């Protein structure tokens, strides 16, 4: 491969590793994917970035399929190629992104949808209480809790007051198979939770007509434990108020938390433990989620875990 292409790839890897601060593991994954791409281009006589055509990219995808690579692997490597060509265009090395219209195999594993950092901020800001209302305080605490911990909605609604150690900023979550794990609470989530417990939760609990629910963190308007369906409605309503251009689902904040943590350099194994994934393979899906969007909104760490 000619030195010009080598230099461009080196610049790209330095850009995502140094300027954008992606973890070494993530940079290594991009390097491996692009090495395969470069070798294929060289074998087909393409030695200059400006000479790469859309047909070349499409033929590379076809070759990976013929080589027996899985649809998921092809989709991941194509995501790396997309990011590289986006970099070349933004850097002024080419006049067009010839990879933009090339799609992954239809049977590729669907990668989880995530929000950008700005979209998450808009979503959480949309839940900021404007009055001293216990339901609004609860909703704010719930959304901050979901994003800070990356927990499943069922884990949040199943959490009890004695599961939270506010002094040490930790919460004990019970996941699938009744497996328990300790997860840190960021300062934003802790502040929202403290405000809800101090000013809103008791007022909700007092509305219970029967035996009061003295254990659950998140209560509904009748003073009972909040259901998963009601928690999902809180997410959906916040999304509508934030006017997000993307559809939300119950695990949107979980997926976004995992992706932003990995983008910020957290080790894959640590994120695996935090989210309660049985296999690290599940966590690794997030290392290549919508890279074009993530790189533009990348920050050095989880924006709401500081403090």
* Strand and helix order: HHHHHHHEEEHHHHHH
Cα gyration radius (Å): 22 Å
Mean pLDDT equals 82
Helicity range? 40-55%
* Strand order in the largest sheet: 1-2-3
Unreliable stretches (pLDDT < 50, length at least 5) are 289-307
Task: Find the structural class using helix and strand composition.
Answer: mainly alpha
Number of helices: 13
Write down how many β-strands occur, each being a DSSP E stretch of 2 or more residues: 3
Task: Note the overall shape.
Answer: elongated
> Roughly how many Å apart are the termini?
47 Å
Oligomer: single chain
| Main sheet overview | 3 strands, antiparallel
Q: What proportion strand?
A: under 5%
Task: Identify the notable features of this structure and list them briefly.
mainly alpha, disordered C terminus, 3-stranded antiparallel sheet, 307 residues
Short description:
With 307 residues, this protein is mainly alpha-helical. The protein has helices at 3-19, 24-43, 54-66, 71-90, 117-126, 134-149, 153-158, 187-205, 228-242, 252-263, 268-275, 280-284, 291-297, and strands at residues 164-165, 170-174, 180-184.
List the helices and strands and how they pair.
Layout: H1 3-19, H2 24-43, H3 54-66, H4 71-90, H5 117-126, H6 134-149, H7 153-158, E1 164-165, E2 170-174, E3 180-184, H8 187-205, H9 228-242, H10 252-263, H11 268-275, H12 280-284, H13 291-297
Antiparallel strand pairs: 1-2, 2-3
Helix pairs in contact: 1-2, 2-4, 3-4, 5-9, 6-8, 6-10
């Amino acid at each position: 491969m000619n030195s010009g292409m080598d230099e461009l790839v080196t610049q790209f890897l330095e850009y995502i590793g140094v300027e954008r601060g992606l973890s070494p593991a993530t940079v290594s994954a991009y390097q491996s994917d692009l090495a395969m791409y470069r070798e294929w281009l060289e074998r087909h006589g393409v030695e200059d970035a400006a000479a790469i055509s859309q047909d070349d990219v499409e033929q590379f995808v076809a070759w990976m399929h013929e080589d027996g690579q899985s649809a998921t692997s092809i989709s991941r490597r194509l995501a790396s190629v997309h990011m590289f060509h986006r970099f070349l265009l933004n850097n002024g090395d080419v006049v067009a992104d010839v990879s933009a219209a090339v799609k992954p195999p239809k049977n590729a594993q669907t990668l989880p949808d995530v929000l950008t950092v700005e979209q998450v901020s808009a979503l959480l800001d949309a839940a900021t209480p404007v009055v001293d209302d216990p339901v609004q305080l609860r909703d704010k605490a719930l959304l901050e809790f979901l994003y800070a911990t990356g927990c499943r909605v069922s884990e949040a609604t199943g959490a009890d007051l004695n599961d939270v150690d506010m002094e040490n900023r930790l919460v004990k979550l019970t996941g699938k198979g009744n497996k328990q794990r300790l997860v840190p609470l960021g300062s934003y989530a802790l502040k929202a939770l403290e405000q809800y417990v101090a000013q809103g939760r008791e007022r909700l609990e007092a509305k219970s007509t029967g035996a009061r629910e003295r254990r659950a963190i998140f209560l509904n308007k009748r003073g009972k434990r909040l259901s998963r369906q009601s928690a999902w409605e809180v997410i959906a309503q916040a999304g509508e108020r934030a006017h997000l251009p993307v559809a939300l689902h119950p695990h949107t904040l979980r997926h976004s938390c995992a992706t932003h943590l990995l983008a910020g350099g957290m080790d894959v194994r640590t994120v695996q433990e935090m989210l309660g994934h049985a296999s690290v393979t599940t966590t690794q899906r997030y290392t290549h989620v919508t890279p074009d969007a993530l790189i533009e909104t990348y920050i050095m760490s989880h924006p709401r875990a500081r403090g």
